[in-house]
Amino acid sequence: MSWLDGPDDDDEEPDYEFRVRPNPKANRPRTKRRPAHDDARIARVLGVDRGRYTVLVAEDAPEEHRGLATRARELRKTAIVTGDRVRVVGDTTGDEGTLSRIVGIEERTSLLRRSADDTDNVERVIVANADQMLVVVAAADPEPRARLVDRYLIAALDAGIRPMLVVTKTDLADPTEFLDHFEGLDLEVFTSARLEMPLERIGFALVGHSTVFVGHSGVGKSTLVNALVPSALRATGHVNVVTGRGRHTSSSTVSYRYEGPAGAGWVIDTPGVRSFGLGHINPDNILAAFTDLATVAEKCPRGCTHLPDAPDCAIMEAVEAGELGERGAARLDSLQRLLLTFETRDTRT
Ligand code: GDP
Ligand code: ZN
């Protein structure tokens, strides 16, 4: 199976993602539940492995500590994922052999999801409460694909998550032409070479945020995570999926605390997410992410697709009249490319 075929579940853990029903009403489903547990403490879910959650109890408090937790019976049908803030009861000391119990999930600020594929409505929750996404692509080996990056961007914008892009392996190829694709986006772009990783700049962008790292395997994502968070010890190198992958090092979604000269943040590494199916995406959310164009689009005819063949599209008219300048024209191009990716989503690329 080609990596461009979209998500491939074969090498993924069966239980770190949960199948949930799409919520027709809201993009960010409310999952807050508060059973009567007055003694509950707030914890952050750092990782999930076979029904066990690694939690950080009392995050940011001086006495914070890690522990293991299971979830209460009443939550067994609820997805609890990396990044969730949960309420835990029982033995929350984190002492060897102790297990606390998750009894509730705090309201999420964002939810990164993906459909199993574009036409499949069953979706999976990947990460909760991330506010940034760092898309990792290589300048070469593997060859970068703008369409794949577009899919990541769409998933981020739909979830209200700010996307950023890092192009690795610029020692192997010049990424300039590839980067031209993203001219019209408000995208912070980093370039990284083997002996010249922009750790300070990326680190600066991580401070105060929860940033989910995504990218196809082989692009250098683990190398980057390890450089930013030396204690992460992500397995690097092209390892045979069947024989070589360390279960705990590289096969599940895990949060790491980034601590740099400018402050701290969270790095959430997501192996196995090759691409995002776009089945659940609402195109209105993509337009909404282009705030400047969204304002102009208020004058569009009802149901306007804003695509090149749309009659009387206010954005296109404004661009043609030169009202939005060259920048606006580039933004429109980018918006249309993303909308088109969405329109043709069931045509595998
Ligand atoms: P991941 O699968 O995305 O986590 O990728 P890895 O971090 O395991 O890297 C895959 C391969 O690319 C490894 O052999 C790395 O040493 C190599 N690699 C990572 N970053 C760079 C880079 O900037 N330049 C070059 N030439 N190779 C790199
Ligand atoms: Zn329009």
Short account of what is shown:
Helix content is 23%, strand content 25%. By secondary structure, it is α/β, with parallel strands linked by helices.
What binds here, in terms of ligands, is: guanosine-5'-diphosphate, zinc ion
Tally of helical runs: 9
Strand content: 15-25%
Radius of gyration: 21 Å
Distance between the termini: 13 Å
Please characterize this protein's 3D structure.
There is one protein chain. With 349 residues, the chain is of the alpha/beta class. The protein folds into three domains: 41-105, Nucleic acid-binding proteins (OB fold (Dihydrolipoamide Acetyltransferase, E2P), Beta Barrel); 111-269, Rossmann fold (3-Layer(aba) Sandwich), CATH 3.40.50; 283-348. The protein contains nine helices and 14 strands. It has helices at residues 146-159, 176-180, 199-206, 221-228, 247-250, 283-289, 291-297, 314-320, 325-343; strands at residues 18-20, 41-49, 52-57, 65-71, 85-90, 99-105, 111-115, 123-128, 132-138, 162-168, 188-191, 210-214, 254-260, 263-269. The strands form three sheets. Strands 11-10-9-12-14-13 form a six-stranded mixed sheet. It is globular, with a radius of gyration of 21 Å. The model is unreliable at 1-27 and 240-250 (pLDDT under 50). Guanosine-5'-diphosphate is lined by residues 168-169, 171-172, 192-194, 215, 217-223, 236-238.
